[in-house]
Amino acid sequence: MIVLYTAVAGGIGSVFRFFISQMLQKTQSHARFPYSILLINLLGAAGLGFLTGAVTSNHPLLVIIGTGFFGGFTTFSTFSIESATMLLQHQIGKLAVYLFATMIGSLCLFAAFDTLGQLLF
To answer: What is the pLDDT of residues 16-42, one digit of tens each?
Structure first.
């Protein structure tokens, strides 16, 4: 049953990613920076950090929400495409900002929200 719940949560996460991406693309249509993917991945890192801090390591919610929802919500593949495109277009400055903001931002948000989850639960 946990596999079914995880699959449903993954579908819900994907739908959330789609809607957030669509909303931001409408407001940032002129932007030449992947703000929506950056925001989605940072939100995912914060959410997963909070979840891991709030529940025990063997809790089923880690699989259902962590693997399912956040796995469907965040997108390493799109991050990779955006990064490779910037590299191929020789947009090294923009690529550096994107890599730094995604990698360091995700690590920092995960750690901060993991701590918050531990403190609250």
So the answer is: 999 999 998 888 767 789 999 999 999
